[in-house]
Design goal:
The chain is mainly α. Helix content is 67%, strand content 7%. α3 links the parallel β1 and β2. α2 crosses α3. Keywords: Membrane, Transmembrane, Transmembrane helix.
Length: 147
């Protein structure tokens, strides 16, 4: 134990006597914090860019799958007989007349799950209006006590 104190005393005696000023310690600490924050921002940006690219790839795959499902529905409806079931579903939000292929694929998959192997065709997917917003407002208003 005494040897440790002797060693520390010798090391501290060999150290330069001029200790750093408070200002230099503050400046070095501030620069260290800025560098670490810049590295964290860079890592976060790269991670975000990775996930954005991944989401774009997934969206492209979903659009391709939806296009294939639509083409398969059109081919099967063209070869089906007059007794085929036609399903018109009004569920997805679409203010202009462009239909989202991913939503169309989901609706076609849901219809196939319910109907099974019977021939069917999804004619259109359109919005029915602001039903969800109205239901949310109704729930909020009904939860309040009227005075």
């Amino acid at each position: 134990m005494f040897a440790i104190y002797t060693t520390l005393a010798q090391i501290s005696a060999a150290a330069p006597t001029g200790s750093p000023s408070t200002a230099s310690v503050v400046v070095v600490g501030f620069l260290f914090v800025l560098i670490v924050l810049a590295l964290l921002a860079a890592v976060t940006s790269m991670t975000g860019a990775f996930f954005i690219k991944q989401a774009a790839r997934d969206a492209a795959k979903a659009a391709e799958a939806a296009q294939k499902a639509v083409e398969a529905n059109l081919k099967s409806s063209g070869s089906a007989d007059a007794g085929s079931t036609t399903v018109a579903i009004a569920s997805a939000a679409s203010s202009d007349d462009t239909e989202d292929p991913a939503i169309l694929a989901v609706v076609a998959a849901a219809v196939h799950t319910v109907i099974g192997d019977r021939p069917h065709r999804v004619v259109s997917v359109q919005s029915t209006g602001p039903g969800w917003a109205q239901e949310g407002r109704r729930q909020i208003f009904s939860s309040h006590r009227v005075r």
